[in-house]
Specification:
The complex is a heterodimer of chains A (230) and B (300).
Chain A: E1 9-17, E2 22-31, E3 36-40, H1 47-54, E4 62-67, E5 70-71, H2 77-86, E6 87-90, H3 102-112, H4 119-128, H5 144-156, E7 162-166, H6 174-189, E8 193-197, H7 201-208, E9 213-219, E10 222-225
Parallel strand pairs in A: 3-8, 3-9, 6-7, 7-8
Antiparallel strand pairs in A: 1-2, 1-4, 4-5, 9-10
Chain B: H1 2-11, H2 15-19, H3 27-64, E1 67-71, H4 75-91, E2 95-100, H5 103-114, E3 127-133, H6 140-150, E4 154-157, H7 159-202, H8 204-212, H9 217-248, H10 275-296
Antiparallel strand pairs in B: 1-3, 1-4, 2-3
Helix pairs in contact in B: 3-7, 3-9, 4-6, 7-9, 7-10, 9-10
The chains are: A alpha/beta (230), B alpha+beta (300).
Bound molecules: adenosine-5'-triphosphate and magnesium ion.
Chain lengths: 230, 300
């Protein structure tokens, strides 16, 4: 667990680009434990890129990034793996193993860290995201929204300190989006640090009614803390 | 101990870590088949190597033994010629010692053929002289000529001369056998590396996902290493056993049969081919591991 008050995610003058010029630059921020942030910006602004920098799938071209007070730069590959066990991620494209049923996919973070999933807890978790009927289905057989909910279940199964969700409601109807938001709020009340990338301003408004969420906006390659105008 | 446990875990339990990589279909059998073929070849190469080893040992053993000079002359001249031959031998460089064999010894040598009561003295049995050469050896041709000139009844039986090239040939065949064994192992390593690379490339997305959810490289590598190690082991076993059976079915080695019938394994040598599946497994383990870690480094 992170010490009280110590930033969970820290960026200092971070820049990134995929080769064709910079995409993000001079990104400096610090997310406190237990905070709830939304990340917005036009499509292609670099929201997914920002989240990938957070869990080390991408390395910054400049600046430093630290999680739980540890610099990603100085971490070994095994350190990164351990870090990812503490950071739950809902990927925009979900990223499942298509040959394993949903239940096994959800339990996968436990499996790869050498632990067994408690069958009851696993079933409860899957019920929590409303997929009880789909336990044995293979990922390709699920709808986009079902996959996103399964991805959320997988992201929280390790009870991570941080949850990064990339467009988790992209394929959900409004009602389902609100249910998923309720799940995120519940996790936040349990003390988890949450970052949600989304286009959905209605979702942000709905969240602000329930928790003190702040909004980060990517604009002109910079990351800004948005004001109250949202 | 830790290493041993890891190997045990690799081969027995933790099939769930193997499950995270999808089953690989019919191409898997190619690895098994190739390992079986290599193992079969390795058994034959091993049989050849061990047999020529034994042969070379036997022949070079005979070489370090004594040569013989045989003197066939009328009884009256025998003693004089024997003395003369011994003098010549004593003066020949390269000869450590020469000794006339006593009639009693000759009788003992002949006993198996003629029975113990052989009256050696009354028979025209040649006098034998045992010659032990020094490490540098002597000039057999020159000695033969000298003997012919000075003791007409004496012949040098230099059987060791014609054996020398044979021992050399056996040494060569043996070296070639080792080379063949080494090449078989290298070919297996190359084949497993290619197959493992293909499997890793085909599962790139799986590896990416595993990495993203916090699997360590060792964990991901293990799923592949386990597969290829087991395939190489059982494939090699499936090639080794028929190979050993084929060697066992060769006609039995006999003293008279010489080289060709001596090709099998003898005694404890039968344990050697059993090492082939183990070596194949070790080769596959390292080849797959190297291929896996090389590829994993490319996946953030
Ligand atoms: N692997 C990559 N190689 C090259 N360019 C990339 C790569 N990934 C993303 N990009 C580019 O970087 C930019 C930002 O991508 P990113 O996925 O971070 O955007 P985003 O804000 O998440 O967009 P969206 O809202 O559509 O998900 C895009 O222009 C994209 O084309
Ligand atoms: Mg995105």
């Amino acid at each position: 667990m992170s010490e009280q008050g110590q930033a969970v995610i820290e960026f200092e003058n971070v820049a990134h680009g995929y080769g064709g010029g910079p995409l993000l630059s001079e990104v400096t921020l610090s997310l406190a434990p237990g905070s709830f942030h939304f990340l917005t910006g036009p499509s292609g602004a670099g929201k997914s890129t920002f989240l990938k920098l957070c869990y080390g799938e991408l390395a910054p071209v400049a600046g430093r990034i630290a999680l739980f007070g540890q610099e990603l730069d100085a971490m070994s590959r095994d350190d990164i793996a351990r870090l990812r066990q503490r950071v739950g991620v809902v990927h925009q494209d979900c990223q499942f193993l298509d040959h394993l049923p949903i239940a096994d996919n959800v339990a996968l973070p436990l499996t790869v860290s050498g632990r067994d999933a408690d069958p009851t807890e696993l079933r409860e978790l899957i019920a929590w995201v409303g997929l009880t009927g789909r336990l044995k289905s293979l990922p390709p057989a699920l709808s986009g929204g079902e996959r996103q909910r399964a991805a959320l279940a997988r992201a929280v199964i390790m009870s991570p300190d941080v949850l990064l969700a990339d467009e988790p409601t992209g394929n959900l109807d409004w009602e389902m989006s609100l249910r998923l938001l309720a799940l995120l709020v519940e996790l936040n009340r349990m003390g988890k640090t949450i970052v949600v990338a989304t286009h959905d301003l209605n979702l942000i408004r709905a969240a602000k009614a329930q928790v003190s969420a702040r909004v980060l906006r990517i604009k002109d390659r910079r990351l800004l803390l948005a004001g109250a105008e949202l | 101990m830790d290493r041993l446990n890891r190997v045990a875990a690799l081969l027995t339990g933790d099939s769930r870590s193997a499950q995270v990589v999808p089953p690989s279909g019919s191409a898997a059998w190619l690895t098994v088949l190739a390992a079986a073929a290599m193992a079969l070849l390795a058994v034959f190469a091993l049989a050849l190597t061990l047999a020529t080893g034994r042969l070379a040992e036997r022949w070079s053993g005979a070489l370090s033994q004594t040569a013989t000079v045989r003197i066939s002359a009328p009884q009256a001249q025998l003693e004089a010629q024997t003395k003369q031959v011994l003098d010549i031998l004593a003066a020949t460089p390269g000869i450590a010692s020469a000794r006339a064999i006593e009639p009693a010894e000759t009788r003992a040598l002949l006993a198996p053929w003629f029975g113990p009561d052989l009256p050696v003295e009354s028979l025209p049995i040649p006098q034998l002289i045992e010659v032990t050469e020094t490490a540098s050896g002597f000039d057999a041709e020159g000695l033969s000529l000298r003997l012919k000139a000075e003791a007409p009844g004496a012949t040098l039986d230099d059987h060791m001369r014609w054996r020398k090239p044979l021992v050399e040939a056996a040494g060569w065949i043996r070296a070639l056998g080792f080379l063949a064994l080494g090449l078989t192992g290298a070919a297996l390593a190359a084949m497993v590396t290619l197959a493992a690379q293909a499997a890793l490339a085909a599962n790139r997305q799986v590896i990416r996902v595993l990495r993203l959810i916090g699997a360590r490289d060792a964990y991901i590598g293990r799923a592949f290493v386990r597969r290829f190690t087991l395939r190489a082991f059982f494939g090699a076993l499936a090639g080794t056993l028929p190979g050993m059976a084929a060697v066992a079915l060769l006609p039995a080695a006999s003293e008279a049969g010489g080289f060709l019938t001596g090709l099998g394994f003898s005694g404890a040598q039968w344990l050697w081919p059993l090492a082939i599946p183990l070596v194949a497994a070790i080769v596959a383990f390292w080849a797959t591991r190297a291929a896996a870690f090389r590829m994993l480094r490319e996946v953030q």
